[in-house]
Amino acid sequence: MPSPIPVTRLLPRDFYPSLDIGTFSSPLSKHSHGPSLQVPVQRLPDSIASRRVSSVIHWKQLRSVQPVGSGGFGSVYRVEYFGETVALKVVKKCTKNRLASRQSFWAELNAAQLRHRNIVRVIAATTCVPADVGDESSIGTILMEFVGNQNLQQVIYGGAEALGAERWLRYSTDIVNGLRFLHSHSIVHLDIKPANVLVSGEDVCKIADFGCSLKLDHGCELSVISPHLSHVCGTYTHRPPELLKGESVSPKADIFSFGITLWQLITRELPYTGDRQHVLYAVVAHSLRPPVQDQPVFQSDLGRLCRTLLSRCWSGDARIRPSAEELLPQLEQLKSKATPTAFT
Questions:
Q1: What is the distance, to the nearest Å, from the Cα of residue 149 to the centroid of all Cα atoms in its chain?
Q2: Residue 207, strand partner residues
Q3: So what's the pLDDT on residue 25?
Q4: pLDDT tens-digit profile of 259-314?
Q5: What is the pLDDT of residues 223-235, one digit of tens each?
Q6: Of 168, 316, 331, 337, which has the maximum CB count within 10 A?
Q7: Which helix (H) or strand (E) holds 92?
Q8: Greater confidence, 107 or 341?
Q9: Strand pairing category for 248-249 and 205-207
């Protein structure tokens, strides 16, 4: 049985102009006029994997709720839903910045209508949360595909097995394929880092956690001083200098973050040490980047190619950075050089 709560209370009015199919325009897009997400309000088909995003969560169908993790804006649970294992994310209000937490919820839906092998799929979303699922601090819930319990951060820093060149190149290609698809739909993620890349049981990487994302109009840049960007967050170690300086957002911001992530995959080290404010200042004022010159791992033929690619990805000038589309053939070139002894 679906939730007895009327559909007109599930989401704000711009999420459901009609009861047959609603048109959603996120308040985090550059302009909130015109359609950007189709939300069918209907019964579930036989397989939840085949349907588009719904504004109804059938609460009585949730079984075996198990906590998976929690972050600044919410908690994630593994649940059984109509017999399938899925993930349930409960987004909570941040007492220090309620606007930011609410915007984070809407940002999570920027890519909700998209379907891609390397992006975590959204099944349903609602702003109504029953008392036995959330509490008065909950903004809403998002039902997503369950990828697994492991993210790339855990693979890099917690895995005992070797992370060979073939494997990290495959992971990198997965991430860039996901970014290419997002950017082709004018969506920038703005928080690409290992912890936000999930690794499935089939060893496939999927980009997750869109709480910092933005939808741009036709690939246009957007100034970070815009009122639409009061939620812009991201992790300081992966944030590009143009955003630290308050300049425009573009898809090239994700490429910078990918460059830091690629360096982590190669070295399995932390990108920076020291005080956060010192790092932020040095990234902007002194072009501080993770070390490559004196590391043996970058002295082989493959390592030197990686060093060149990294320098372009994390260039202080966003125009110099390659697009996700341009990165893919460069990663293929690296694959041609990868051997079991490529970094020895």
A1: 16
A2: 119, 197
A3: 36
A4: 999 999 999 999 999 899 999 999 999 999 999 988 888 999 999 999 999 999 99
A5: 444 444 444 567 8
A6: 168
A7: strand 84-92
A8: 107
A9: unpaired
Amino acid at 243: L
Distance CA 266, CA 269 (A): 8
* The token pair that represents 4 in the structure block: 């007895």
Kindly write down the DSSP assignment for every residue of 198-221, as one continuous string: EE-TTS-EEE---TT-EE-STT--
Which residues belong to CATH 3.30.200.20 in the chain? 7-145
114/30: higher pLDDT: 114
pTM: 0.81
Judged by phi (left if over 0) then psi (alpha if -120 to 50, else beta), residue 234 lies in left
- In which band, very low, low, confident or very high, does the pLDDT at 177 lie, cut at 50, 70 and 90? very high
Residues 29, 215: Cα–Cα separation, whole Å: 5
> How far from chain centre, in Å, is Cα 90?
16
Cβ neighbours around 320 below 10 Å, total: 12
Distance, in Å, from the CA atom of 181 to the CA atom of 113, rounded to the nearest integer, reads: 12
Residue 68 pLDDT class (50, 70, 90 cuts): confident
Q: Does domain 7-145 have CATH number 3.30.200.20?
A: yes
Q: What pLDDT, on a 0 to 100 scale, did the predictor assign at position 319?
A: 95
The whole-angstrom separation of Cα 69 and Cα 76 is: 5
Q: Under 8 Å CB-to-CB from 199, ≥6 apart: which residues?
A: 147, 148, 150, 151, 152, 155, 171, 205, 206
Q: Which of 259-271 are b and which e, b meaning 16 or more Cβ less than 10 Å from the residue's Cβ?
A: bbbbbbbbbeeeb
Domain(s) labelled CATH 1.10.510.10 in the chain stretch across: 150-337
What pLDDT, on the 0 to 100 scale, is given for residue 135? 59
The first and second tokens of residue 3, run together, are 């939730």
CATH H-level, domain 150-337: superfamily: Transferase(Phosphotransferase) domain 1 (1.10.510.10)
* 279 touches 236 (CB < 8 A): yes
Rounded-to-integer distance, Cα 343 and Cα 297, Å: 6
What would the two tokens of residue 70 be? 């929690």
Q: Which residues are catalytic?
A: 191
Which amino acid, 12?
A: P
